[in-house]
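step: validate -> pass
step: tokenize input -> pass
step: predict -> running
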Amino acid sequence: MRRRDVIATLAAIGAISSWPVRARTEGGAGIIGLLSPFTRGETEPWHQAFRDGLRDLGWTEGTDIRFEYRYADGHAERLPELIANLLSLKPAVIVTAVTTDTVATARATKTIPIVMASPGDPVASGLVDSLARPGGNITGLTQVATDLAAKRMQLLKEIAPGTSRLAVLRDTRDSVGNLTWPELQEPARHLGIALHSVEVNSSSELDTAFPRILEASVNALLPLPTPIFVVAERRIADFALKHRLPSMYHLPEFARAGGLMSYGPDRADLFRRAAGYVHKLLKGAKPSELPVEQASRFQLVINLKTAKALGLSVPQSILIRADELIE
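step: predict -> pass
step: emit ->
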């Protein structure tokens, strides 16, 4: 063999040996599964942030990693089938979006590493043993932050001081909603707000939920974080505006769709940080030993056009804190 052929062969062997151990030895071939209970359009900004994060860490799509996307489009019952399909590809890692898809994936595999990007409380949901030492095959981040529910209601009360009866849209099958509901009770009492629970278990049930909200004589609306509300964001925002209900949401997409305001973790930032977990796992780290991190960046988005339509004046103290103002 000629000298330059030997050098080329050795270089190729070196490139192969530098591949992540898990991707090379478990049949993953660099496959990263990206799962979402939402639609492709709703999830794409977060997945773009994730891809950017991996690129900044030196990973090249199509060369040493490739992505497989699966979307449930707001239908949680589709998740087991989508997850089974992903697992058949023997991925190196599966990245989940929120609690719903993380729980479903955890039920399906105890061996493939799972990186959760923005679930609710993973300890209360039984996904990890603790934030410091998650145990098992799951790690990542959580959107949980101290007093988040209280801050949402406080902001709503500041912009709409007449808020006294708040309709809370809940999906009773969703663990995050069930965990959040008790957290609302004490802040509501402190703010003098009576909570009215409106239970919805599918987006199709919104047609009957909307009349129930009106019958309850509420004067504000708060949907809890859950996939079935995210895929119906415009329907909910239009309903609130039509019936002059100031509304608070957890994602900026609701405010951009016509809702009054949103306050919550910056999910793009969480997905970008999730890339760091995948990087470590592909390099051989164990998910059980990677502590779960909490959200550190939050976004306040206010739709000034909606505020004007509702006859509300947004205090200057809130305007200067807003990350985005929609006019």
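step: describe -> The domain at 3-144+267-297 is CATH 3.40.50.2300 (Rossmann fold).
step: cleanup -> pass
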